Structure formats: structure tokens, C-alpha cells
Amino acid sequence: MASGPERFLAATAHLPITPQRMPDSTHTAAEAAAAVGCAVGAIVKSLVFVAVHPDDSREPVLALVCGDNRADLDALAGVLGARVEKADAKTVKETTGYSIGGVPPLGHPAPVRTVVDRDLLRFGTVWSAAGSAYDVFPATPQQLVDWTGGELADIGNR
């Protein structure tokens, strides 16, 4: 089975993405910013949640949040029209194909509903995980919106 970064490269081969392997861990936003040499806010946190709809159906959702923001679960729930729960590690892996700390915003086994923190637009370039806690790639916030089919919303707070 291919490693996370190899799987990510294969899944995104049609896009102009150039992952970079960092010598130090990028598991957290602060670690990633230090490794890349950018502001913490320019790091994209790919966070998986579960939307619990009024009919009790459950839908995994990916929130792309600015590295210096916390996900605002009430705001996310408002966007989704559902109660929001944090996904466990098993759900994250099943939904995205990647482990926590290396979840990319795209390149998953199946499309995942994605909501993008509007605050990312304050940066020209943002950095996202590319399949492991050591691999990242640069993109513009608009590219992430386009590539993920994501919905821009105010889902982050500092």
C-alpha cells in the first residue's frame, strides 16, 4: 500500500501541486509554520467533523481552518444546518484515507463536503498537509476552494 504522501500525489496528479518534505514535523500549525517559515495563520488545518442532521443521519465534513484560528463549531453547525461533533481518529482515517496530523484538504477516497474558513483569504499563499506530518504543499486560498468544491464561510475564531 502506498504511503500517505504517495497516495496524495497520485490522487492530485491532475493539479499543479508540488508537495515538499520538511525536515521537522508539521503535525501542528505551529510546527508547520516554523518548518515552512510562514505565519501560523497561513497554515491550513484540515479538521474532520461529523454533521448530525435532524433526521439523525451522519455526514463527515472537512473544515479547512486558518492555523491561528479555532474552528467555531456553532458557526459550522449554522452553515451545515446540523449539530456538529468532532470526528474520532477512525472516522478521520475512513473519511480521508489519512491519519490526523497529515490530513490534506483534498485527495480523499471519495468527495467530502468541505467548508473553508474565509479568514484564509487574508494570505496570498497557504500551506496544507500533503499526506503526512512531514509533507506540505503551497496553494492560494482560492485554489483550495476551487479544488475542494468548498464553501467559504466564517467558521474560525481567534
TrEMBL record:
Coiled coil regions in record: none
Residues of the YbaK/aminoacyl-tRNA synthetase-associated domain: 25-146
InterPro entries documented for this protein: YbaK/aa-tRNA-synt-asso_dom_sf (IPR036754), YbaK/aa-tRNA-synth-assoc-dom (IPR007214)
Gene3D superfamilies registered for this protein in UniProt: YbaK/aminoacyl-tRNA synthetase-associated domain (3.90.960.10)
Domain of life: Bacteria
Protein name: YbaK/EbsC family protein
Organism this protein belongs to: Microcella humidisoli
